[in-house]
Structures are given as structure tokens and as C-alpha cells.
Amino acid sequence: MKAFEKSVKIPKVDGATVMLDKGLTPEFVESFLKVAGEYVTAVKLGWGTARLIDKEIVARKVEMYVDAGLDVFPGGTLAEIAIAQGNFEGYLNELDELGFNAIEISDGMIPMSIEKKCELIERACEQGFTVYAEEGKKRDEEYSVLSPSDIVGRMNKCVEAGAEYVIVEARESGKHGPMGAEKRERVRVLSEIVKGVGIQRVMFEAPEKEQQFELIVKFGPEVNIANVPPEEVIPLATLRAGLRAETMGRVALDGE
Amino acid sequence: MKAFEKSVKIPKVDGATVMLDKGLTPEFVESFLKVAGEYVTAVKLGWGTARLIDKEIVARKVEMYVDAGLDVFPGGTLAEIAIAQGNFEGYLNELDELGFNAIEISDGMIPMSIEKKCELIERACEQGFTVYAEEGKKRDEEYSVLSPSDIVGRMNKCVEAGAEYVIVEARESGKHGPMGAEKRERVRVLSEIVKGVGIQRVMFEAPEKEQQFELIVKFGPEVNIANVPPEEVIPLATLRAGLRAETMGRVALDGE
Amino acid sequence: MKAFEKSVKIPKVDGATVMLDKGLTPEFVESFLKVAGEYVTAVKLGWGTARLIDKEIVARKVEMYVDAGLDVFPGGTLAEIAIAQGNFEGYLNELDELGFNAIEISDGMIPMSIEKKCELIERACEQGFTVYAEEGKKRDEEYSVLSPSDIVGRMNKCVEAGAEYVIVEARESGKHGPMGAEKRERVRVLSEIVKGVGIQRVMFEAPEKEQQFELIVKFGPEVNIANVPPEEVIPLATLRAGLRAETMGRVALDGE
């Protein structure tokens, strides 16, 4: 039972939340999951951070996340480095050994045809991983060449190949690519992506309250949000539930 | 005994500090209070965050805060939602059940006459809670209608009704309302409020060093500061004590 | 063995990293060192924060840092206050009692001739401390009077007097002094300092990714970086190792 459940009614909190773990301690993860685990859907061990941490520590954290019912995967950059070094199969095996149940497949830094990307997605699905496919480029000058319909087209192919979610690349800050455009343009492009891919499949990287608020008001509290720092997981859930000034009164109560 | 107490003299650190807890783990709170508890006066469980956390976890944290001699209360937004749902009495009872010893009463989102607000304050005092009354609006367009003398007038009524402290609303960022005005205007309005209400009663929401420094230089190290993130509690205390460059040499040593 | 060591090759991570501890709990430090200790060279207990914390707690943290093979020292501001109060000898003794193995000597707030500064450095070396000497002023108006060749001249005297590292003052934010100048000027001044003092000896205060990235691209992954918040220690190490988009492909692999 939640605190204040008797005196304050709220709607059900929904929508996927991907937390960013860029080197948390196992002790913190253990405590955190008891407080906020139910408001997290998946955990990304940001970019290549896992590569620098002892195998035993990573495996222990992964186990805690999996036991809590979450997807857990390293950042797509790590997979891209393995691919660039010609070792995607070795990477899949090491994911397995460490206990990961999911993978992010992206082409933010390395060039990759959509056919190649779909092959990798299929290969990862075959091996039992839940696939998070990211679309977009880390470098803004390469990103700007992609049109919303290019992004939608590629995302839908990723979904057909087996991806569970498709993520719009915006970096740790959530301020690159379409997420970094000025507001009118941003809303136009994101709306086109949501329309083309479906609100259930698409995820936006949005670590900050203002970004999350804009997405929730535009697309509803069930919009999928990624790159959420641990200390913002509960705050984001309050935005979804109408428990913060921004969305108070804007989110309908259950069954009313 | 403190570290470096023998070789470095400092003045007594004074002034109330309200820490913002937006979902901390009980394990963190336990460790934190041993390091920094004496520099905290009260803890606000930000806006509606407590509503999403297990009753047992909230009660356990509240107990630790109360045992450390601190006031602890949920954000005023949670009370406002209970009031909007017609359940202020139920809210008071649930505060009691969970062990809270204080309450924040605000009208940042819902319209409320000052008479109604004072009634609620009296009611909460009757039930034994220490009352933190917040003045100001969450939405800047509603806030800007209030003059400094309106704010002072309402604050003084809150104090007469039993409020221990009155807080100038500025949101988590400390950048809304008069705290968000350009500097000359900000200083003018805050000075009027301090003059009208008294430095002991009024609190400013100021999470950032620059904001805290400005308040300390203008109103002295004993100014009351709210919305302080846990990791800024010790840094704020160093500003008050002249242990940081900004205030070094500006804060008089005890008895000298 | 590190996670993903079998499938992803990276170069050796090098360069000194000074972490900023502004009031961490001993419990956090214990967990943190197991995850990231090997990517830290030294820990600074920021400015005067240690003065407000119980002696036993500070001593316990210092012991953990020393046991992990790290240098640990309070911020130079604390030493400056002791000096201004005429008690440098008492300060050295208290450092000893608390278990510190290093000291920061700066003149950011108090005026000090370079001869006096070198005397203090020699005195601290004599007593067995590793010396981190900081150059530059806390107040921008005093800082701007120093030319790059003044800074280099003073730094080299500090090194001759026994300082292990010389730090370019930039405050907690890393945005004051030459680090806060516009880009062309910043690069010009920093390059002159590196050229004059040597890349092994000089340290830059750079808490943010963009600052760290600029330094790594300009001076190589082995550049010494200070004022790194705990949660940015692993991210900084990924930048050095080419495990993050910014530096992926820019950092050469070992022996290739």
C-alpha cells in the first residue's frame, strides 16, 4: 500500500521509463529498486560505462535489475564498438554470460544500412534478447540529413525485424536531433514519428522535467521516456500521475 | 568534535535549512543524517512524491527524520490535491498515521481565500502539526498579479493563524515568482517581504549556490533557505560559516 | 576482469583524475571505491566542507581513500583560512591527526608572494605531504590581472619547491579564470600553460563533459582533470578510453 493512498486519489501510472545507470553502486541499486523499481521499465548502462567496471559488479547489478522484472542493456555505443571491431557474436555471448536480457542496437556513430541493422536485430532476437533499436546520429551534422519520414521508415523496419521499442536518439542531455530543434519544429517532427510508428513503440530521450512535461502534455502520460537519471524516476512518475503542479488536474483520475 | 576544530575558527552556523527529498532511499537518509543532519531544520518530501512510495518506506524515513529532531512534511501540492478532492481531514489523519510532525499549506495551484487558508492552518495546528505556509503561485501568470504588500499581508495572517514559517514560492528551481525577477527587482521585493514579515519567519526557495550567496550577503548568514538538495546541505552550511570563497572573511568569527 | 573485456578492445586509461567530495557519506565512499576507485587519483574534500563534519567521520573517509591508494586533501580555502588566522602549523598537525596524506596550497582568496607560497610548500613536503599547488584567484577581477606567463612562472616555482601537481583555478564549475574565457582565448592560454609546465604536472578543473572532451581532444586522453563529481568519474574514464561517442575512434587502441 502506498503512502496517502487513503486520502489522495490518483490515476494509474503508465508508460515505459528507461533509467540511465552510468556507474551506480550495487548498494545504491539494491535500495533504489525497493523505493522506485516499479516505476522503471528498463535500465540502460550508459554508452560504454560497463566496459570499465568489474565483471562481478556488472553481473550483480544486472541480476538485481532482472530480478526486479526490468529489461537491462548496455548503451548502443558499446555494441557499435564491438561491431566496428568485427565482434558482434562475441558481444552477444558476453551479454549472455553477464546475464543481460536486452540489447540496444544503434548506428549513431558507425554507418550501417537498414538491411544490416535489421539483420543484427533478428540475430539478437534469435538469441533471446529484447531489442531496443535506436535511430538517429550522435553528430548533429549527420543527424540533420535524416527526414522524419526516413526515421519513421527505418524505425518500422526495425519493428518488423523484431525490435520491441524504437528510440529517437537525443544523447544523455535529450537535446540533440529533433529533440534539440526549436519548439514548433520539434513538436512537428515528434508528432510525425509518433503517428508513423505508434505511441507504444517509440521512446524519447528526455532527462529533464521540462522535456518530460512537454511530451506528456502532447502525447499523454503513457508516452515512453528514456535517459531518466535515477533521482528523476519518482519525479517523472509524479508528472505522469498528476502529482506535480505542471500536470495537476490535467491527468484524469481512474474511472472518473 | 569537528574536523579541524583545533586549527580553524568559524562562527556558529545558524538559519533554517529545508532539504528537498524527492524519493531518497532510507539507507541514504540514515547515512546522510549522521554526516549532515545537524545542518538541516526540516525536510520536504517534494510535491506529491510520497504518494507513489510504499507506506512502510515513507514511515521509516519520516521516523528517521523526526528522531534526528527535524520537521518533516510532504509538499503543499499533495495537500492541495487532497483539498481539491474534498478530503483535508483524511489527509491530516494520514499524516498522523505516517508519523509526520509538520505540514505545508499552500495555494500554488488551487484558488483559496486567505480566510480559508488561515482556517486550514488553525485546524492543522490544533492537531499538533508545525505549519509551513507557502505563499505564491506555481503559474507565473497568476503569480505576477500579487504585489509584495499582498504577499506580506497574507503571510502575516498565516503567522497569526499559527504558521511557524512562511515560504516564498519559487518552485524546485528557485527561479519563479520574485526569486525569478531580474536582480534589482528581486532584491527590492525580497527586502520588502523580509521587512514586512521578519527574517526569522520568512523562507526562500534557493537550491543553487548563487541564489544562496545573494541571500546570505543581503540578509545575513541566518536567512532561512528551502529546497536545498541533499548534496548541497553541507555546501550551504559552509557559505553560512564563511568556509567558502564567496563568504570567506565576510562572516564574522564568534565573539570577535 | 572487466565486463565485456573479451569482446571489446580499449586502450589503457591514463591521466590523473581528482574527484570532488563535498560531504559524501562513508557508506557511499565505501561502495563507490569498489566500482570506480581505480579511475580516481586523488580526492579533494571541497573548500571548507570537512570543517563542519565530525572528526571521526572525516577520519574514516580519509582512511578509506588512503587505503585505496589515493591522495586525499581538503580544499585550499581551508588552508588559506588557517593561514589567515596565523595557524598553518596547527593545520598541518591536524591534517596528520586526521590521516590526510596530501595538502592543497593555494592563494585564491588571500594575497601571498610566490616566495611565501614556496616556503609553505616546502614545509608541507618536509612533513611528508604530497602537495597540490593551485594557481589563480577566486575573484575574476583579480584573476584577469595574471598573464599566462605569470601563471607558468609561479607554477614552475611551486614545482621546484616540491609540488607534485599544479592546478589551474577554475572553481567548482570549472568556468572561472582561463577556463571561463571564450574558446579561442581559452585554448591559447591553456596551451601556453601546458607548454610551460608540462602535461604531467598541470591539472585543469573541469567537472563537465564538454570541458573534459575539449581538454582530451586538445591535449590527449592523459590530461589531468580535477573537480570531477563522483557520478562523472566513470563517464570521464569512458571519454579517455574512447568508449563514448565524442571520443570513439579518436583514441588509439593499445598496441595497434
From TrEMBL, chains A, B, C:
Question: Source organism's superkingdom?
Answer: Archaea
Tell me its EC number(s), please. 4.4.1.19
The keyword Lyase appears for this protein: yes
For this protein, the record's Gene3D superfamilies field holds:
Aldolase class I (3.20.20.70)
Q: What class of enzyme is it?
A: lyase
Q: Which Pfam families match?
A: ComA (PF02679)
Arranged from A to Z, the UniProt key words for this protein are: Lyase
Q: Name one GO molecular function term.
A: phosphosulfolactate synthase activity
Single biological process term from Gene Ontology: coenzyme M biosynthetic process
Q: Which NCBIfam families has this protein been placed in?
A: arch_ComA (TIGR03849)
Q: Which family does it belong to?
A: Belongs to the phosphosulfolactate synthase family.
Which PANTHER family does this entry report, sorted A to Z?
Answer: PROTEIN HEAT-STRESS-ASSOCIATED 32 (PTHR48413:SF1), PTHR48413
Q: What is this protein called?
A: Phosphosulfolactate synthase
Species, as recorded: Methanopyrus kandleri
